[in-house]
Design goal:
Blueprint lengths: L2 H16 L3 E8 L13 E8 L13 E5 L6 H4 L9 H10 L7 E5 L12 E2 L3 E2 H16 L9 E6 L1 H12 L6 E5 L26 H6 L2 H13 L14 E2 L2 E2 L1 H9 L2 H4 L4 H6 L2 E7 L3 H16 L5 E5 L7 H16 L8
Parallel strand pairs: 3-4, 3-7, 7-8, 8-11, 11-12
Antiparallel strand pairs: 1-2, 2-4, 5-6, 9-10
Helix pairs in contact: 3-12
Length: about 350
């Protein structure tokens, strides 16, 4: 038998022996989400992928990748507990089996809310999702799993709304996360030219109950979720939000609040934090035009500040190549940039 063939057989046998990783879905209590006006439970589902060697090597510790899902999505769908367009554990098993990336723990909190997405932001209506993800969830993982509890060993990634969250949380918390990867991040650019009021109530204004939210079209849901995250109003029941129109008339202050939460509007204030990150990467498909335009602008800003980063526009849309991008780009990125060395303190 030729040496090259023998080598391939050995690699295949080693991969087969390693087997798949395991998935756990647990509840994590979030003190930061207590009392949110949406009425969402502060006990959040969290899906955790433990790599193949985790249960076989009880003394080994692992870096952690925190992965944030998109709007109207949840961790159950991404982790294969419900049929969906992606299965993150299957991707992880494939990558680790062929040695394309070093093994790591991957964690995804369920950010599906009464408005179908938290925007990973902080408001009295949604609760303080920034603190939950960046502090409480990280502390829980470090206290209950064999993580490497060091900033150099923590990565943050996300798709769509999750990509927005990864940018928002990453640039605010360089002492928690060291590397970030944004997959088709939404909501990056401020809307500086909103449509003027029509003089009649918008579809979002007509929504009065959470049951009606669930039945609304995607853009109406997105409007309400954005309002819950970025323009909350504890004095405006039953939904406790201020919308960009009122009785059909444009509300400039609400629009300003939304614009202030766009990463491209706030990024200049976080340049020192971005310099502290070890690695930054982001990408989007050509057919995802507004999102691709947003990350092209981000590329220009970071380039002007001489902040090292990786940026790519590839052929694709918002979802059709995300599994491939995670497999071939994001996981190798974290494998190369996270620390796999336990720091003794």
């Amino acid at each position: 038998m030729k040496p090259a063939v023998l080598l391939l057989l050995c690699i295949a046998a080693a991969a087969a022996q390693s087997g798949p990783g395991s998935v756990e879905r647990i509840k994590v209590h979030a003190k930061s989400l207590e009392g949110n006006l949406e009425g969402d439970s502060p006990d959040r589902d969290v899906s955790i992928y433990l790599p193949p060697s985790y249960k076989k090597s009880p003394d080994r510790r692992y870096p952690v990748l925190y992965f944030l899902h998109g709007f109207t999505d949840d961790d159950a769908r991404w982790f294969g507990l419900q049929k969906h367009w992606i299965s993150l554990p299957a991707i992880l098993d494939k990558v680790f089996a062929r040695g394309a990336a070093k093994e790591m723990i991957v964690v995804m909190p369920n950010a599906f809310t009464a408005f179908q997405g938290s925007m990973y932001s902080n408001s009295v209506t949604t609760g303080d999702w920034e603190t939950f993800v960046s502090r409480e969830l990280v502390a829980y993982m470090d206290g209950h799993y064999r993580t490497i509890p060091d900033v150099a060993s923590r990565g943050l990634a996300g798709h769509s709304m999750g990509g927005y969250g990864a940018m928002r949380l990453g640039m605010k918390n360089p002492e928690v996360f060291s590397s970030i990867y944004l997959l088709s991040p939404c909501c990056m650019s401020p809307n500086l030219s909103p449509r003027p009021g029509s003089g009649s109530p918008s579809p979002a204004e007509k929504i009065k109950t959470q049951e009606e939210v669930a039945k609304a079209d995607f853009m109406t849901k997105a409007t309400l979720a954005s309002a819950a995250a970025w323009s909350p109003n504890p004095k405006n029941p039953p939904l406790y939000v201020d919308l960009p129109t009122k009785d059909g008339e444009f509300q400039p202050l609400v629009a300003a609040k939304w614009a202030a939460n766009a990463p491209l509007a706030m990024v200049d204030q976080y340049i020192p934090n971005l310099r502290r990150l070890k690695a930054i990467a982001f990408d989007a498909g050509t057919q995802d035009r507004s999102i691709a335009a947003g990350i092209q602008t981000l590329d220009g800003i970071l380039t002007n500040y001489a902040i090292s980063h990786t940026f790519e526009i590839y052929e694709g849309d918002h979802v059709n190549r995300i599994a491939e991008r995670i497999e071939t780009k994001a996981l190798p990125f974290f494998s190369n940039n996270l620390s796999f060395t336990v720091v003794r303190k």
